[in-house]
Design brief:
With 481 residues, the protein is of the alpha/beta class. The protein is built from 17 helices and 20 strands. A nine-stranded mixed beta sheet has the order 7-8-6-9-10-11-12-13-14, sandwiched between helices. The chain has a six-stranded mixed beta sheet with strand order 15-16-20-17-18-19, with helices on both faces. Strands 3-2-1-4-5 form a five-stranded parallel beta sheet. Helix 6 links the parallel strand 7 and strand 8.
C-alpha cells in the first residue's frame, strides 16, 4: 500500500484522495462505495457480473463520480491503496492475490464499519456480536428485542441484511448494536473488537469457501478476539469453548456458557421451566437469577431456547436487567420459515422450517417434535445425511423426498431407518411441493407433525428458501380449504 494512513486501526485516518477499490456490488458493495466516496476517496468498483441489476447499480454510482468496471473482478486497478470487498468473495480470487503481492490491505465492509464507528466525534456504540453455523439471525433479533425492552437505542445489523456501514455512518445514534456476523465477514475483519460476542454452534458449512473445517472454525473464532466483557459459548458444543480458550481477550473478560441443562457458575441455563442466570449475579457460586420462563420463548423448541439463552447472556453482559430479558423475549416474533406453525389440519400440525438448509439446522428442527412426517431434499451442497437420519429415526413416522439430491437422503433412510415409509417424488418443478404435502398428509396420523426441514438448499427448485416455505404454506392452506 502506498500510504501508511490505513494501516493502524486505532488511529484516525483520512480517506481524501486515497484510491480505494471496492470488490463487488450488491448489498454491501454499493453502501461501501457510497461511504468511501463521501469521505473523499477515489473509488473504483469491480464486479464479476454484468447483468441488469449490476448495470442499474453501476449507473447509480457513476452519477456520484464512482468508476465501475463490470465483468472484470479479477484485475487490481492500478494505484489501488486499499481493497474493500463484499464478504462472499473467496480469498483465493486473483484480485486478492494481486493485492497481497502489492502490499495492499484487504478489508471487508464490516472492517470498514468498525474503523469508521467513531468518526465525527460521536461516541462509538459498542457491538454485541453473534456468529455460528445456525441461529444467528434469530439470536440477534432476540438480543435487539431485549435491548429495546431495556430502553436502549439499538438495531439488529450486519449479516441480517441491514448495513453496518449505514448504522455507523448514518444520522441515528445508538447506545449499543446487535451485530450478526458470518464467517465470510469475520474473515475480512481482523481489527474487530466486540464488547461481548457469542459463537452459537459449529458444524461443517461453507467449506468450499474456507477450504477446511479448521479454517472455517478459525474465522468464526475471530469474533472473540479482543472481547472486553464476555465470550459466550455453547456448553453442548465443545468446539465453541475451544475457540474461547484460543482467543486473545482483554484482561478481565470472562467465558460465559449457555446450556439447556442446569447451569454451573458462570453459565446460563434451564431449571424447572425457567431460564436462569448464574453468570451475571453477585456470588455466582451461591446465587442465581430467574430471567424468564421457557414459555416466554417463541417457539420454545430446544435450539430456540439455546438462542434465547445466548441472547440473554450478551444482554446481561451489557448490564440489562432480568425484567428486560423477559419482556424482550415475550415481544420477539421470529422471522418466517423458522419453525413456523402454518396450520393444524385433521389433528396434524404443519410446520415450515424451510430455513433449515443444512443438516445441523435440520437436526435441531427434528429434535423439537416427537412424531414427524419429514419433507426433505434439495441441493445437498456436499452434505451427508447418515448421522442426521440415525439420530432422528425413532421420531420419523414417514418421509417425503423432493429435489435434485433426494437420493442421498433416501439412501441414508434405507441404511438407518429402513422401517420408515418413504415417498420419493421424481420431480424438481415447483409444483412438487403440493404433491409432497398431499403425500405427507396421507402418511400422517393425528398428533403428528408434518415438518418441512429440507436439510438442503433450495435453488434446484426455488429462488430461495423463502419461496420454498411459501410454497409449503400455500399447499397446506389448500389442504384445509
Amino acid at each position: 500500500m502506498g500510504s501508511g494512513q490505513v494501516t493502524d486501526s486505532s488511529a484516525p485516518f483520512d480517506f481524501r484522495g486515497k484510491h480505494v477499490t471496492v470488490a463487488g456490488l450488491g448489498v454491501s458493495g454499493v453502501p461501501a462505495a457510497k461511504v468511501l466516496h463521501g469521505l473523499g476517496a477515489r473509488v473504483t468498483v469491480v464486479n464479476d457480473g454484468d447483468d441488469e441489476r449490476a448495470r442499474t447499480q453501476a449507473a447509480e454510482l457513476e452519477t456520484l463520480g464512482v468508476t465501475v468496471r463490470l465483468g472484470d473482478g479479477a484485475t487490481l486497478p492500478e494505484g489501488t491503496e486499499l481493497v474493500v470487498t463484499a464478504p462472499g468473495w473467496k480469498p483465493d480470487k486473483p484480485l486478492f492475490t494481486a493485492a497481497h503481492e502489492a502490499g495492499v490491505p484487504v478489508w471487508g465492509d464490516v472492517e470498514l464499519a468498525w474503523r469508521l464507528r467513531d468518526r465525527d466525534g460521536r461516541k462509538a456504540a459498542p457491538w454485541l456480536a453473534v456468529t455460528g453455523t445456525n441461529g444467528k439471525t434469530t439470536t440477534v433479533q432476540m438480543l435487539a428485542s431485549i435491548l429495546k425492552a431495556a430502553g436502549l437505542r439499538t438495531a439488529a445489523v450486519g449479516n441480517i441484511g441491514v448495513s453496518l456501514l449505514d448504522a455507523v455512518t448514518g444520522d441515528e445514534e445508538y447506545d449499543v448494536l446487535a451485530v450478526e456476523l458470518s464467517s465470510y465477514q469475520l474473515h475480512w475483519a481482523p481489527s474487530l473488537r466486540a464488547h461481548s460476542a457469542a459463537v452459537l454452534n459449529l458444524a461443517p458449512d461453507h467449506l468450499d469457501w474456507h477450504g477446511s473445517m479448521e479454517a472455517y472454525a478459525a474465522d468464526k473464532g475471530r469474533i472473540y478476539e479482543g472481547n472486553r466483557v464476555a465470550c459466550v459459548y455453547n456448553v453442548a458444543d465443545k468446539a465453541t469453548e475451544d475457540l474461547v480458550r484460543a482467543a486473545d481477550v482483554e484482561e478481565g473478560c470472562r467465558a460465559v456458557g449457555f446450556t439447556l441443562g442446569s447451569p454451573a457458575p458462570s453459565q446460563l441455563g434451564v431449571v424447572e421451566g425457567l431460564l436462569i442466570d448464574r453468570a451475571f449475579v453477585e456470588d455466582r457460586h451461591r446465587n442465581a437469577q430467574e430471567l424468564a420462563e421457557v414459555s416466554d420463548v417463541n417457539p420454545p423448541a430446544p435450539h430456540n431456547i439455546a438462542n434465547a439463552l445466548a441472547a440473554a447472556a450478551l444482554a446481561r453482559s451489557f448490564g440489562v436487567s432480568a425484567a428486560a430479558v423477559r419482556d424482550g423475549l415475550r415481544a420477539f416474533t421470529p422471522d418466517a420459515h423458522r419453525i413456523a406453525h402454518v396450520a393444524d389440519v385433521d389433528g396434524v400440525a404443519y410446520v415450515d422450517d424451510s430455513k433449515a438448509t443444512n443438516t445441523h439446522a435440520t437436526e435441531a428442527s427434528l429434535a423439537a417434535y416427537e412424531s414427524i412426517v419429514w419433507i426433505a431434499g434439495g441441493l445437498a451442497k456436499g452434505a451427508t445425511f447418515d448421522e442426521l437420519v440415525a439420530g432422528a429415526a425413532k421420531r420419523l413416522r414417514g418421509a417425503v423426498l423432493i429435489g435434485a439430491d433426494r437420493a442421498l437422503i433416501r439412501e441414508a433412510l434405507a441404511r438407518h431407518a429402513p422401517e420408515v415409509p418413504v415417498v420419493d417424488l421424481d420431480r424438481t418443478d415447483t409444483g412438487a411441493m403440493l404433491q409432497a404435502v398431499q403425500e405427507a398428509q396421507r402418511l400422517a396420523r393425528p398428533g403428528d407433525t408434518v415438518l418441512l426441514a429440507p436439510a438442503c438448499a433450495s435453488m434446484d427448485m426455488f429462488t430461495n428458501y423463502n419461496k420454498r416455505g411459501d410454497a409449503f404454506a400455500q399447499a397446506v392452506r389448500e389442504l384445509g380449504a
